[in-house]
Amino acid sequence: MTTQPSRAQTLSILAGASILMSLGMGMRQSLGLFMVPITRDLSLTVSDFTFALALQNIVWGITQPFIGAISDKTGIRPLMLGGASCFVVGILVTIFATGPLTLALGLGVFIGLALSCTASNLSMSSSARVVSASSRSMVLGIVSAIGSFGTFLIAPLAQTLIADHGWHTALIAFSILAALMLPAAFFTGRVDRIPLPKAPGNGEPVTLGSALRAASRHRGYVTMTIAFFVCGLQLVFLTTHLPTYLALCGQDPMLGAQALATIGMFNVIGCYVLGWAGGHYPKHILLGLVYVIRSVAITAYFVFPPSPATTLLFAAVMGFLWLGVAPLINGLVAQMFGLRFMATLTGVAFFSHQVGSFLGAWGGGLIYDIFGSYDHAWQLGVLIGLIAGTAQMLTDDRANKDKILTPVAA
Fold this sequence. Notes:
By secondary structure, the protein is mostly helical. Helices cover 78% and strands 0% of the residues. The protein is built from 17 helices and no strands. 60% of the residues are buried.
């Protein structure tokens, strides 16, 4: 077992994590493009489709703390390889779906479990372990930025294939992309050979139970976890329903894909900027500002009829604020509690995020089916976002003071 990762090891782990995030998140954030053709061909309702995506998010959220705990205890590589395999299976099940149950199994259960094993939580935890504390926020921002590039490429590809060859062909292309996640998972898993740095302090052994107890008593962590709910609610509502909203408003179907691609492009910039900013300014303040500015942007967009120009401008603003929360959240957890149980503690926080994602996907579809409009959905998202952002800025980011869980400075 090595004591320090070599430069080649570090680069291969960071590259693997970036590719996993790029492919996994790119495909996941493009699934809303399939809503219209799948519901039409399978004679489903909007809420049938959005329930499958909502189930995906809640499976991801429920399993993430346990997947994080397993990875902290036994290693990351087996989980990532299994997750990449689940992604392929989920896409294949969706290709042969005949109704809401098989759709929920493919898009919901299999891809939800796959994301839990491959996407932001384990990828970011792997990246955090191979860099110094002083550069951690910046590196996490760079990994998030590279990981964001997938949406920029995959959304237009998916829409083009759907328009020219049908949604089955587009999903076959997704299955090929999912297979490419396997070698990326293998290289990211090299982090298992790198021991965690010893935390300064009394040197007593740290247990998972002590970590969870310390986190439950930390006001900043608890507030961050609850506020993270709004992140999932707002973002998954947009990725799931924005293409359909634009179609209802008479816009070209390609505009939805262009909006998602714009989100992906500006997400690259936003992740880098917020990763850099997290190393220079209080992360909890930056995180709260992200939630508030998102809410203001959503209000400004939805109060007026959409046009191509306003849609792409809105997508650029939201993209800049999109996955940039990842380096801030992961950086806060490392700052508060260190690296030993980082995957577990970020996994617990992520569960809150995914409860919001569940409501953003299914709740948005349910509200549309009941009222025939998305107005009440975005208004509720804005209200919750303003409350969560304000609470986040008013909390603290102090390092944990419990002797049994000494943090590593971030």
